[in-house]
Fold:
Amino acid sequence: MAAQQGHDLNCLTIKELEKHAEQLMNKQTRDYYNEGADDGSTLLENSQAYSKYRIRPRVLRDISLIDTSCPLFGLRSSMPMGVAPTAMQCLAHPDGEVATAKACRKAGIIMGLSSFATSTLEDVAAASGANPRVLQLYLFEEREHSRKLIQRAKAAGYKAVFLTVDTPMLGRRNLEIRNQFKLPKPYKIANFPEDSSSAAAKTVMDGASSYTGGREDKISTSTSDGEDGRKRRPPSGPVSFHSHAPNPTLCWERDIEWLKEQCGSEMEVWVKGIATAEDALLAVHHHVDGIVVSNHGGRQLNGALATLDALPEVADAVQGKIPVHVDGGIRHGTDIFKAIALGADFVWIGRPVLWGLSYKGQEGVELCLRLLKDEFTLCMGLAGTVRVEEISKDYLVKVDKGGFVSRL
Structure:
């Protein structure tokens, strides 16, 4: 029998895609992309959390017309899944973020761009065409760098800023430390052109350990005089990830208001890194436009809740006032179904896209997105649903450690 059109017979699942990428990536890149914080328990639990749920399929329903689309930023996304912002994609393939943008455009799937991308936000916008995209933002203590980036994103038609809020300090990533990981030539952090000729712009680690960023003498819990009389000194000099991304001074009252002023009516303001009902309510109180339940891919606080486990309390707290998205650990279309059933409006995938990019560039990302969409569509149909809005917790049960099943 002839192979069905569209299948890559060497890669039929995300797990197989991961194996291909493991063989194709060099050790430093593989370690950088795949590592979690400390012993990686939260990273592992992000994926394992999905296995605690089983689907309750309904039958004898007309599923001849399945619609996987959903509303997003005033448009219709082809499915409730986007490509999460991940840094330095040229490590996976020379075409990097531009290849990812082209694949997303072809699939009708939104792309998130990291501030620390190896392609400029303008190049990614050009490759995206009319397909929507969002900018992930680390709000630097020295605001001018962030202000310039926001203005460029507005001019390039980005729909939203996703403010990363779970990096007041950087999690300890031991393989980064051991490998003394640096961004190899000729790649550079592309969105800070004023620093493009400096060594700092071309390195990731800057010779610093990942959990302090080389700023031990600068980290404080206060922006004013401390008990010892010292004042906090914000990072200066060329922008690099480990010097500028962590910001221990971020706070709801001051920074969300400033960010909304900068984005104006052109871009929405979302917070990425919410994991509790308390912070979800604060997000609503401060009038952000949406939430991403995230633990930074298990790369920050090891021992934190898996994102799927954190999702229900966040969704329950928000009560539909603003959209709730989730990322982390999604490896199959059924995972997307389960996340939607537990209260997410939308999901974001990160590492699988990097694996696809490493495998075959743009074609590999297209494969990744197609696999997940095909699996999700099949899951919807076999569960007895034809619209994303129909998916609810009624379609799930939870299995405890003893194997006992309980309705949600």
Notes: The first strand starts at residue 53 and ends at 55. The radius of gyration is 21 Å.
